[in-house]
Write a structure and sequence with these properties.
This protein is α+β, with helices and mostly antiparallel strands and 460 residues long. It has helices spanning 2-12, 26-31, 33-44, 63-72, 85-88, 97-107, 113-133, 135-140, 146-163, 169-188, 201-226, 235-241, 253-283, 286-300, 314-326, 358-361, 405-422; strands spanning 47-52, 55-60, 77-79, 144-145, 333-337, 341-343, 346-348, 353-356, 423-427, 434-437, 441-444, 448-453. It has a single domain, classed as Cytochrome P450 (Cytochrome p450, Orthogonal Bundle). It has 17 helices and twelve strands.
């Protein structure tokens, strides 16, 4: 019976949702990409077709199908992110095959847990600096945009962990250029490829930002080489001194540049987005916020946390995990089949584009009861044993799982703990916050909150 069902699927083709002549589902996807993906998965099933003009994609939402693409047969599926290659070059996110494996070997030591201990101090120093700056706002009843604050914070953290403390104003210039470049990438997700070649203001700003990034990174590399400071405790130094154990090769300056831009993007944008959504969700869930605050008080008291405290902040981590379930910064993953394959009984021809969406899979009700609800207890050790491995994949999975996932989780945990020690953030009434799916899943138009000091009178 199962063989007959599989044969029927192959013969009838992949189901899809209703679209328009010629353009298919493109209008719906451009207007409401998240709602379109959810609708496609619920109406079309585990494997469903989405037609975007002349391009056709298959959306896979079942954990076993995700596992097949990301882990079991990952060599057959290459990444489809051509629009961001102009920024990231041939960095770890976009490289493939033997070159990717070499880069992964070279870079892995930089993200070992013992290295994270050194980075944790930069994370807490910069967070303390941000919190000091909130004192006047809290005293004066002045709201802040938590999304912007988290972006500025994670920018400072990644600049410091990437380049050390000796870049000064250069670091701020690089941060501004990256923000402009990211805005350009966001624009490229919603305009046709041919429009990226026109002399439009957004394209000119993007190109100027790329020049700034390239010149700055190459200048820092040259200065370090001249001074004989190729190594060091920051990420750039680790990239410069990394040597392949099998071949003895090091990275070229251009490859270092590509990895710097890749780490910068992955190392601040995704964490900032996650933290912004965490404050939004906590402000709407007072009991959960109280639980985090009580844990922080019990584990840390008033002292600054260190990396050794992270394993003990278990409820805080559960809040982060649940935030990543509801609002995964990397809301969609795309892959292209190299050779013909079969998934869920459907043929996958060579060259076929696939969408894998954590946002969609994280909302399958048979995997996540009350899928739209914010419930960190889902991630208690005794609660998650029955879920398939790829029911949850905010950092991807398989051999190409995000290399910086532990960096991001440590950073988010330390930031939340330190904010909770000093402030309560209340969502400003009357605002509507929506998920804006572009390069990452940003909250739009921001997350405006009122900071209240919790240290002056002991209030929690």
């Amino acid at each position: 019976m199962q063989q007959e069902a599989s044969k029927l699927r192959v013969e009838t083709g992949v189901p899809g949702i209703k679209g328009y002549p010629l353009v298919g589902n493109l209008p719906q996807f451009q207007r409401q990409p998240l709602a379109t993906l959810i609708k496609a998965a619920r109406e079309g099933g585990d494997v469903t077709r989405i037609d975007l003009g002349r391009e056709r994609y298959y959306l896979l939402s079942h954990p076993e199908h995700v596992r097949h693409v990301l882990q079991e047969n990952y060599k057959n599926y290459v990444k489809g992110y051509g629009k961001v290659r102009v920024l990231l070059g041939n960095g770890l996110v976009l490289s493939e095959g033997s070159f990717w494996r070499r880069q992964r070997r070279l870079m892995q030591p930089a993200f070992h847990r013992r290295r994270l201990a050194g980075f944790a101090e930069a994370m807490t120093d910069e967070t303390a600096r941000m919190l000091d700056g909130w004192e006047a706002r809290a005293a004066g009843g002045e709201p802040l945009d938590a999304a912007l604050e988290m972006t500025l914070l994670t920018q400072r953290i990644i600049v410091r962990t990437m380049f050390g403390s000796d870049v000064g104003e250069e670091g701020e210039r690089i941060a501004r250029a990256f923000e402009t470049a990211l805005s350009g990438i966001d624009a490229r997700f919603v305009i046709p490829l041919w429009m990226t070649r026109l002399p439009l203001p957004v394209n000119r700003r993007f190109e100027k930002a790329l020049v700034t990034i390239d010149e700055a990174v190459h200048r820092i590399i040259r200065e370090r080489r001249r001074a004989g400071r190729e190594g060091g405790d920051d990420l750039l130094g680790m990239l410069m001194e990394a040597r392949d154990e099998e071949t003895g090769e090091t990275m070229s300056d251009q490859q270092i540049r590509d990895e710097v831009t890749t780490i910068y993007l992955a190392g601040h944008e995704t964490t900032a987005v996650t933290l912004a959504w965490a404050w939004y969700l906590l402000s709407k869930s007072p009991e959960v916020a109280r639980g985090v605050r009580e844990e922080v008080s019990r584990v840390l008291g008033e002292r600054t946390p260190g990396i050794e405290d992270v394993p003990n902040l278990t409820y805080t981590r559960m809040v982060i995990d649940e935030t990543l379930r509801l609002y995964p910064a990397a809301w969609m993953v795309s892959r292209i089949a190299v050779e013909e394959d079969e998934i869920g009984g459907y043929p996958i021809p060579a060259g076929q584009g696939l969408f894998l969406s954590p946002y969609v899979t994280h909302r399958r009700p048979e995997l996540w009861p009350n899928p739209e609800g914010f419930d960190p207890e889902r991630f208690a050790l005794e609660s998650g044993g029955e879920r398939p491995r790829f029911a949850y994949f905010p950092f991807g999975g398989g051999p190409r799982q995000c290399i910086g996932n532990n960096f991001a989780l440590v950073e988010a945990t330390l930031v939340i703990a330190m904010v909770m020690q000093r402030y309560r953030l209340d969502l400003m009434s009357g605002q509507t916050v929506k998920a804006n799916p572009r390069g990452t899943l940003r909250p739009r138009p921001g997350v405006w909150m009122m900071p209240h000091s919790t240290t002056s009178n002991g209030t929690i």
